[in-house]
């Protein structure tokens, strides 16, 4: 996927401009930044749901457009009504030619095979036939990953897929996504505030703050100088026992989604 000279504005407010980004097949890029910095809007541009103010966006070899079957999308974790009758297997099935009707007998048989296969890949076979509302957040999110994989995408766009999950499920979902990109050479763009579970997996980081951005390898971006420049206030990045600790003023820590004036980032190799 690629953006060239990309600018996105709403009225007088520019979220980002002059953004050039190329994500290669098999590359894992994390998108970080405070709320309102344009992270989700970036995904909407690539999904064809939002037009750029200027510049170009291409994904899976074509201009960004809605309904591109080469793109898999994993949304934020949201609460589901316990009374919703939709089963997990039916949710996953929406990812297989979900925009088409009248698949025919052969098409339906193929659809069932694909659904069963991706459910098995994410380890959800034991609960896939249960109503979604009866499942835990981690179980629901595994099924959302399966839904995104059902169309065999070459690109995965992930919008806070770890939100509201406990640490064990954050790591599990992260590993499922990473395994897909490694086995199928799938490009991954991963919006998150929960950087710790994915930091060992990430190739590059795109950091968006207040109309500015930085792109680079984690050790190039997650530095005192870069974060201080972006937030326009002093932010320190320290290494403690093989882990990175980000320390700054209250405003910067709020923007980083932290509490207590510090944030720990697990070490990457």
From TrEMBL:
SUPFAM superfamilies: P-loop containing nucleoside triphosphate hydrolases. Keywords: ATP-binding, Nucleotide-binding, Transport. InterPro entries: AAA+_ATPase, ABC_transporter-like_ATP-bd, ABC_transporter-like_CS, Metal_Ion_Import_ABC, P-loop_NTPase. Residues 1-235 form the ABC transporter domain. GO terms for molecular function: ATP binding; ATP hydrolysis activity. It comes from the Bacteria. Belongs to the ABC transporter superfamily. PANTHER family: IRON TRANSPORT SYSTEM ATP-BINDING PROTEIN HI_0361-RELATED, METAL TRANSPORT SYSTEM ATP-BINDING PROTEIN TM_0124-RELATED. This is ATP-binding cassette domain-containing protein.
């Amino acid at each position: 996927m690629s953006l060239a000279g990309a600018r996105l504005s709403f009225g007088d407010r520019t979220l980002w401009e002059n953004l050039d980004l190329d994500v290669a097949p098999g590359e894992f890029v994390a998108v970080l930044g405070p709320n309102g910095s344009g992270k989700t809007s970036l995904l909407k541009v690539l999904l064809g749901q939002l037009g750029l103010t200027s510049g170009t966006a291409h994904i899976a070899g074509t201009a960004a457009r809605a309904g591109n079957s080469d793109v898999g999308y994993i949304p934020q974790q949201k609460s589901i009504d316990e009374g919703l009758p939709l089963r997990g297997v039916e949710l996953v099935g929406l990812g297989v030619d979900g925009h088409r009707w009248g698949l025919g007998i052969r098409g339906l048989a193929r659809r069932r095979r694909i659904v069963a296969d991706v459910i098995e890949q994410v380890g959800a076979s034991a609960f896939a036939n249960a109503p979604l509302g009866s499942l835990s957040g981690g179980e629901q999110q595994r099924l959302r990953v399966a839904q995104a994989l059902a169309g065999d995408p070459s690109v995965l766009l992930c919008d806070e897929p770890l939100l509201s999950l406990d640490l064990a499920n954050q790591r599990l979902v992260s590993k499922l996504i990473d395994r897909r990109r490694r086995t199928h050479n799938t490009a991954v763009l991963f919006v998150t505030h929960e950087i710790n579970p994915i930091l060992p997996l990430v190739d590059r980081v795109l950091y968006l703050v207040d109309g500015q951005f930085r792109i680079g390898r984690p050790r190039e971006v997650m530095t005192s100088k870069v974060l201080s420049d972006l937030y326009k206030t002093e932010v320190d990045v320290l290494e403690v026992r093989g882990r990175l600790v980000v320390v700054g003023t209250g405003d910067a820590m709020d923007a980083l989604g932290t509490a207590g004036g510090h944030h720990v980032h697990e070490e990457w190799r």
